[in-house]
Amino acid sequence: MEQLIGLFKSYLSVVGYSAGVQRTLPACVQEFIYYSQVEDMALVTPQDIAAFYEWLHIRPLKYREGALSNAMISHYVYALRVLFDWLEACGELVQNPVSVLRFKRYAPNSRKPLSVAEVQRLFAAAESLREQVLLHLFYSCGLRRSEGVALQLSDVVIAGQVLYVRRGKNSKRRVIPLTRQVATALDRYISKERYRVRQRGSAFMLNSKGGPMSGKSYLLLLRRIVTRAGLDQATSLHHLRHSIATHLLHAGAGLEYVRDFLGHSRLESSQIYAKAAITQLPQLPE
């Protein structure tokens, strides 16, 4: 089965799926294989997939209490659809076991943004420069998790008060303006905390061992801040991004600016544009 997973990853890469999807879909498939104990995908039945689908609704989370979200269950279903469609196209299947199944369609989760007061509680609960910077990257700068993971030290220009996203979603680039407060916090992290650890690589954010922060590391660090702040444990990195978008709009920023700030459309980035836009940012928590 390891060979199958390797070929599946190669297929996802060739057809242009993002790096995140190339990791997520094979992981979902591997969990199906482990649960079903199948040795040959050609022998998988619709009943095997239906049983796995039912189990996903009661499967415990690995790092905290609770069960999988509807959105995550949909990811597993999508992974199996892509896998079996690929195997069918390759002539490896007589019948596609997913094609005869119908799965419940879930409405998109309504992600409620944090209030300004809740964001202030998060910043107040941050106990280190690294925790403050995490909040600034995903709230003040509105980064996606993958963008935070990919952020390099050279992408943060303190003197120019800008942060460069070199490769965002769909390979889009953008420039994010930094307020003086945010730039100061990032500069303090670079000069006072980042260089205290033995560095391995050029990632902007480092873990305690000097390696680059992973998406999982960011999430676990956020969980600690959220716990101390007494907020909902379901608060995610993307909640921070969603919240800054809402707060910018409420502060009077235009829809076009917020769209470009978050990288939802093509941005003809320039230093002049970034400096001009900075005046539209609201006062952020200390």
Attribute tags:
about 290 residues, mainly alpha, DNA polymerase, domain 1, hpI Integrase, Chain A, 3-stranded antiparallel β-sheet
Report on the architecture of this protein.
With 286 residues, the protein is mostly helical. The chain folds into 2 domains: 2-89, Orthogonal Bundle (DNA polymerase, domain 1); 116-280, Intergrase catalytic core (hpI Integrase, Chain A). It has helices at 2-14, 19-36, 46-56, 70-89, 116-125, 129-140, 145-150, 180-193, 215-229, 237-250, 255-262, 271-277, and strands at 156-157, 162-165, 174-177. It has a 3-stranded antiparallel β-sheet with strand order 1-2-3. Helix 2 (19-36) packs across helix 4 and helix 6 packs antiparallel against helix 8 (180-193). The radius of gyration is 21 Å and the shape is elongated. The termini are far apart. The model is unreliable at 266-282 (pLDDT under 50).
What class do helices, strands and sheet pairing give?
mainly alpha
Spatial order of the strands forming the largest sheet? 1-2-3
CATH class of the largest domain: Mainly Alpha
* Low-confidence segments: 266-282
Order of helices and strands: HHHHHHHEEEHHHHH
Summarize the structure.
The chain has 286 residues and is mainly alpha-helical. Helix content is 52%, strand content 3%.
SSE layout:
Blueprint (H helix, E strand, L loop, with lengths): L1 H13 L4 H18 L9 H11 L13 H20 L26 H10 L3 H12 L4 H6 L5 E2 L4 E4 L8 E4 L2 H14 L21 H15 L7 H14 L4 H8 L8 H7 L9
Antiparallel strand pairs: 1-2, 2-3
Helix pairs in contact: 1-2, 2-4, 5-9, 6-8, 6-10, 10-11
